[in-house]
Hints:
Helix content is 36%, strand content 34%. 14% of the residues are buried. It has helices spanning 50-60, 76-104, 129-139, 147-151; strands at 4-14, 17-26, 29-36, 44-47, 64-67, 70-73, 108-112, 121-123, 143-146. It has four helices and nine strands; from the N terminus they run E-E-E-E-H-E-E-H-E-E-H-E-H. It has two domains: 4-96, no CATH class; 105-151, no CATH class. The protein is an alpha+beta fold.
Amino acid sequence: MNGYSVKGLRTFATPDGGGYNVDLYRDGVKVAHAFEGGFGGEVELQFVNPTESKKFYDTIATLKYKFDGKEYTHSAETFIGELIEVIAEAQDAKKFEARIKRNCKKVIVVHYKEDGPESFRTFKIPYSAQSIAKVKELYGHKIDKVYNEEFGIFA
């Protein structure tokens, strides 16, 4: 977002929910380290120099986000929170894909048209030309994706 990203996310549990440590980058160059202790305070930022601090706060002062139908100006915490969401979603997608690939090694794995984007169904039989033909004959009208074929992984 606006040239900013985060890397090296480390989260931890606290009595108030959780906190994090993360490095903040602008255009691929590290500009700060962020620490959220998870005890209700504002995020702490340690910038590499005052110029980067000014650039960061000038940038977020121009950015808006919506919450509960209202528009707000970003704070450091909300902006970094959105950046963290981006990498968290990517990590979740990688985990989901890894689960599918693990299953493909043993059984037929499909996605039904009616299911959400992060779901899959398995047929507890190894993938073969005969078994997938039978599955498609019986359930082909429901299936929009055969993950074994998409990833080239066959039981």
